Amino acid sequence: MTVAWFTIEDLGVLVRRHRVDDSITRVMTRLLRTDLIIVDDIDLLPVSPDAAKGFYRLVDAAYERRALAVSGNLHPSGSDEMMPKTLATATVDRLLHHAHIVVT
Fold first, then answer.
1. Which H or E run includes 52?
2. Could you read off the pLDDT of 85-99 as tens digits, one per residue?
């Protein structure tokens, strides 16, 4: 099983790095070849706009195609505290459809 692990800011770095040549779609396609994608600590610090966009793009690309695990301290309903409301709503909608939420 192949696994890709990121923090949410790593996704922001990916977006910034690939914005120049508009190759972010290729990067997301390559990520979707892994069996499991993990995004860790999504709500520890305020999220940059690039990280929010990268997180949304990853969730959208993986939606109903790939296993995605997300860890954080906020309930999904609080996502609009860390990213713009429109991105948060769309991201949470895709995350919670078919999701298993584990509260510890």
1. helix 49-62
2. 888 889 889 988 888
CATH of the domain at 41: 3.40.50.300
Helix (H) or strand (E) holding 62: helix 49-62
The whole-model pTM stands at 0.85
Contacts 24+ apart (CB under 8 A), 21-25: 24/54, 24/57
3-state secondary structure of 68: strand
Backbone phi, then psi, for 42, in 5-degree steps? -75, -15
CB 72 within 8 A of CB 42: yes
Residue 102 domain-assigned (yes or no): no
CA atoms within 13 A on the CB side of 90: 14
Q: Dump pLDDT digits (tens) for 36-72.
A: 999 998 877 778 888 888 888 899 999 988 999 998 8
Q: Could you tell me the sign of the dihedral formed by the alpha carbons of 24, 26, 38, 88, in that order? A: positive
Domain that holds residue 47: 3-96
User: Is residue 15 situated within a structural domain?
Assistant: yes
